[in-house]
Amino acid sequence: MPKDSPVRELRDLKGKKIAFAKGSQGHLFVLKAMQDAHMDPESTQFAYLSYGDARSAFERGFIDA
Fold first, then answer.
1. 3-state SS class at 4
2. How many helices (H) and strands (E) does the chain have?
3. What is the DSSP letter of 42?
4. SsuA/THI5-like domain location, by residue (predicted)?
């Protein structure tokens, strides 16, 4: 995350768009962390992209994390 990002902790992802490769370690980690924090995964918007597409979308501002 960029240093000036408003996302500092898991709860800051509420209402944000997050990119993952579906079924990836990162995807599963965030789902588990949200479950442990009693967060509804539907409080965020998931974009399932390849790693390269996710990076490009993030750099262009199409996704938040």
1. coil
2. 2, 2
3. G
4. 2-65
Cα gap 35→5, rounded to integer Å: 23
Q: What is the residue whose two structure tokens read 């993030």?
A: 58
Q: Please, are residues 52 and 19 in contact by the beta-carbon 8 Å criterion?
A: no
Name the 3-class secondary structure at 47. Answer: strand
Q: What pTM was estimated for this model as a whole?
A: 0.74
Task: Please state, in angstroms and rounded to a whole number, the distance separating the CA atoms of residues 7 and 25.
Answer: 20
| Residues β-bridged to residue 41 | none
Segment 8-39, tens digit of pLDDT? 888 988 999 999 888 789 889 999 999 999 99
